[in-house]
Amino acid sequence: MKTLYVTDLDGTLLRTDDTVSPFTINTVNGLVDKGMLFTYATARSLVSASVVTKGLSARIPVIAYNGAFIYNAETGIPLYSLFFTPEESSFIISLLQSFRLYPFVYSFQEGIERLSWMSGTENEGCFNYLRKRKGDPRLNPVSDEKRLYAGDIFYFTCIGEKEALQPFYERIAASGLFTCTLQQELYETEYWCEVMPKKATKANAINRLKELWECDRIVSFGDSLNDISMFRISDECYAVENAAPALKEHAAGLIPVCDEDGVAKWLLEHVRL
User: Fold this and answer.
1) Per residue in 62-100, pLDDT tens?
2) pTM, rounded to two decimals
3) Does residue 269 sit in helix, strand or coil?
4) Strand positions, DSSP E, the chain
5) Please, which pLDDT band fits residue 119 given cuts at 50, 70 and 90?
6) Spelled out in words, what is the top-level CATH class assigned to the domain 3-80+200-270?
7) DSSP state of 185
8) What is the mean pLDDT of residues 245-260?
9) Percent of the chain with pLDDT over 70
10) How far apart are the first and last CA of the chain?
11) β-strands 217-222, 178-184: how paired?
């Protein structure tokens, strides 16, 4: 029986300092060398995920942007991608404008991936996000809305206080047209409201990989609300002790916190190759 093992990154495989421990790297790489099918599904971009998973074997495709993209991790070539239609983008942009919100906009412009935002509208949460991505080639500060919303868009993120984002989130969620989340950023005080194409979920992307690699079972690990869809389609699913209570309700069991190598310890004990 062929099993695909899938883990979230932040708060799950990664420690609180955004690194993967040497124990986890050695454990995962050793099992991969023996034939384990292992990948990750993250809200991060491939650029960001590649930095924090340096040293970790990635021999099968990885899932980024909460399922909007599947990449060949070695080449960086997208194998699967989801974008908003022009009509969907217009609808979201109109709502953003009505609530006077300026998002981070993720798009491809002339074949180049861009992370655009309106310069001068940043709050402290935005600055925190940008500081962690200093030197990222996608960064694209702009001075007008035409350039902010240029290209083929696949992701919107608003960062701020919950009270400022909640009305927009309720309106966009009520439309039923998109996948959207509103949750507190890990280890921070600010909230993130993220809007993606309707089919952009970790579950849909994992099912594509399951079919591609002809796997019979899925075992997953997570910590946050965006992992719920992944847990629902898994044969076994485990939440780290530091996970959100709402995710723990969907878990088959709990594993040690991310700072104690919970995923690696479970794999070492249970994977038989």
Assistant:
1) 999 999 999 998 898 999 999 999 999 999 999 999 999
2) 0.92
3) helix
4) 3-7, 37-40, 62-64, 69-71, 78-81, 104-109, 112-118, 139-142, 152-160, 178-184, 191-197, 217-222, 236-240, 253-255
5) very high
6) alpha beta
7) P
8) 96
9) 100
10) 10
11) unpaired
Which own/partner pairs from 71-76 qualify as long-range (CB within 8 Å, at least 24 positions apart)?
71/46, 73/46, 76/46
200-to-22, 81, 268 alpha-carbon distances in Å: 32, 9, 31
Over residues 34-51, the pLDDT tens digits come to: 999 999 999 999 999 999
CA–CA separation, 10 vs 49, rounded Å?
A: 9
Report the DSSP pairing between strands 112-118 and 104-109: antiparallel
* The token pair that represents 26 in the structure block: 């050695």
Residue span(s) of the chain under CATH 3.40.50.1000 come to 3-80+200-270
Cα torsion 44, 46, 51, 57 to 10°: value is 110
| Residue 73, number of CB atoms within 10 A of its CB | 21
CATH topology of domain 86-197: 3.30.1240
